[in-house]
Design brief:
about 325 residues; alpha+beta; Arc Repressor Mutant, subunit A; BirA Bifunctional Protein, domain 2; SH3 type barrels; eight-stranded mixed beta sheet; five-stranded antiparallel beta sheet; 9 helices; about 30% helix
């Protein structure tokens, strides 16, 4: 059973937004003829755009005009960009959480599945924090991936996923500055968070595990939305000034993520040590860490073989942490 707020993407909504992409005014009568729906049907679509806070202008006698481009996600377009990679892609209009949707999926467990949604009503990040998920702006992505591994062999997976996201974003942005990662998996660009990751593992029998990988990437988020975000943040549009078609980014992300997961499945975390060191935001810096309810501070020494963060404490001892919330110590 799927989450109650799950909505399959309305194809008339897709057609309407394609029609409005030219930036011109379109009146209700012409929209109805083009979409082959009644004026009442057009009105319902316009009310849905208002509900989703899509910015458009309405002018009597002229019709409706988008204030900025909005290209919706298209599973077929993404799949075609990937070629013959065997996976199932679903694109939803609205869902509680893409991770939760895949966790409830009854599809064959050996099948790689991807869920994308234009909006989440209960998007989550690490430590059960909410993830701001407005309609049509960003990427809300989950992949269900099967591993022929025990739970103990998946230590460090979140770091590998973070590396794949950073590689994807560096490819998209195209600048030389390396995108940094704040352990365990925050993706940081110019000191601000652009992407977050939530991994949930379902251990099966006979050394088999299903992993649901949730990734949120700020793409076309703008300053107008910042009151809804409680930490320093960035987006692709904020960095470059470009309004992105998210379909190409999703295809790049899926390709990179599958490549990194396959490498991890064969070689483990050790195959990524050099890449992690190059992107490690915390290495050699004074760090505050909250592990459970216990605070720690020390100098970050990188990660160990299990992907645990290693801190050099005030007494000179080294201590590893498998989980926790980190921040750079204020001077």
């Amino acid at each position: 059973m799927k989450a109650k707020t799950t909505l399959v993407l309305n194809q008339n909504l897709v057609k309407l937004l394609r029609l409005l992409q030219d930036g011109q005014y379109h009146d209700g009568t012409s929209i109805g003829k083009t979409l082959n729906i009644t004026r009442g049907g057009v009105w319902k679509l316009i009310k849905k755009l208002e509900q989703y806070q899509v910015a458009f202008t309405s002018m009597k006698g002229k019709g409706y005009q988008l204030n900025e481009p909005l290209i919706l996600l298209d599973g077929e377009k993404i799949q075609n960009s990937l070629g013959k990679i065997p996976l199932k892609i679903e694109v939803l209009e609205k869902v509680d959480s893409t991770n939760q949707y895949l966790k409830l999926s009854q599809a064959p467990i050996e099948e790689v599945r991807v869920c994308l949604s234009e909006m989440q009503t209960k998007g989550r990040g690490r430590l059960n924090r909410s993830w701001y998920s407005p309609f049509g702006k960003n990427i809300y992505f989950s992949m269900r991936y099967p591993f022929q591994k025990d739970l103990s062999e998946l230590s460090g997976l979140s770091l590998v996923v973070a590396l794949s996201v950073a590689h994807t974003l560096n490819t998209i942005i195209g600048f030389q500055e390396k995108i940094k990662l704040k352990w365990p998996n925050d993706v940081i660009v110019q000191g601000e968070k652009m992407a977050g990751i939530l991994i949930e593992i379902q251990a099966e029998s006979n050394g088999f595990s299903q992993v649901v990988i949730g990734i949120g990437i700020n793409v076309n988020e703008t300053d107008a939305d910042q009151n809804n975000i409680t930490q320093p943040w960035s987006s692709l549009k904020k960095i470059t000034g470009i309004n992105y078609d998210r379909n190409g980014i999703c295809a790049e992300l899926i390709s990179k993520l599958l490549s990194y997961l396959q490498r991890f499945s064969v070689s483990g975390l050790s195959d990524f040590n050099t890449e992690w060191q190059e992107r490690d935001l915390l290495f050699g810096k004074a760090v505050e860490l909250m592990s459970g309810n216990q605070p720690y501070s020390g100098i970050a020494q990188g990660i160990d073989a299990q992907g645990h963060l290693v801190l050099k404490l005030a007494d000179g001892s080294l201590k590893g942490f498998s989980s926790g919330d980190t921040s750079l110590r204020k001077q």
